[in-house]
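Batch job 17 of 40 flagged for manual review because the log was empty.
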Amino acid sequence: MTTKNTESRSETKSESESLSGGVTWAAANARRLARQGLTAPSDGGPAAVAGAMVGAHAQVLSAAELSVALRLDGGATRETVRTALWADGSLVKTFGPRGTVHLLPSADLPLWTGALSALPAGRNAMPDGVRMTEDETDQVVAAIADALADDDLTVDELTEEIVARTGPWAGDRVMDAFQTKWPRWRQMTHTAAHRGALCFGPNRGRKVTYTNPHRLLPGFTPLEGRAALAGLVERYLYAYGPASPQHFAKWVTAPVNWARELFDTLAAEGRTEEVRYEGGPAWVVAGDTDFPTEPAAPGVRLLPYFDAFTIASQPRERLFAGAAYERALGGGQAGNFPVLLIDGVVAGVWHQRRSGKWLDVTVEPLGTLTAAHRTALGEQVERTGEILQGTPRLTVGPVSVGPHA
């Protein structure tokens, strides 16, 4: 794949040009690609890449490993990411934005926990008889922090310890989950993570374990909420700006009116500034108004399930243009399909299946592939095989597998 770093090597618009003419989607997209390590690989490590992505979605851990490694140079593989996660501890696996599992830089955990715990509490969707009160939530979070202070525990082990510290109500199996019943306390797993009481430990065989982040990061303390939220907005805007309060609210799952107030406050403090973007107001980090004059460099990428770029880039109908909006957005939600990216826009979907040493990759383009596209696609499939440590075989044709739930 022939690439160039459009942010650092191409001419950029001056601040006056950017503000007077407005920022085009093509310019914003080119800058996002460059800052994500999708134009040219990053020479940083996994933690730096996860930071640039503002978190790597890890509900499917193999997808997160691929998301991070494909942005690195020097032949990085999934083992590179696993080393950062489980050996040197520069990455942490925990519950991030939208209450979903993410890989985050460990050094950023004080900011993330401070910000996420300061988000407005949404309506608890659990039914009567299952829903926990605020007092019960506080009890469970304190019990989790105490139980994990000295050891990694499986879900069952942690349940026993929580019940011993709170009472049998916390362990009542009342939560519907995957054709079974989970203990009541598990509805607050992500809340405990957001408050800095819990993160993932290494698997014990096939069993998930949890640990206390204080054991991984001595001296760890969540940042004060308002300062942490400001820092998170700035990182989000640097990676995915220009963006509106509505975009940020969707990304973190928060009320739009609350996000508007937050953006107004940050603008009044001089931390962000307004630009014209796609015909309307949007915001960038103050002073960060240089954008490439050229669209995204020609190239082909295979992005896995829930890649941060496809989830956070807005407006979504520009990234998923034409037929891609129907084909590549499972139920209207970005990330449910791995996507084929050509010249910076979604141009197809793909799927991979492992069988022994073989990694069968099926790519369904939504248009005609040129000879150059086919060559670059072959290189991407080889790189995917290298990262996932399998021998790849490419098929160009329909993807019959549905979206990831």
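Reviewer: the log was empty due to a logging misconfiguration, but the result itself is present. The chain has 18 helices and 15 strands. Unflagging and moving on to job 18.
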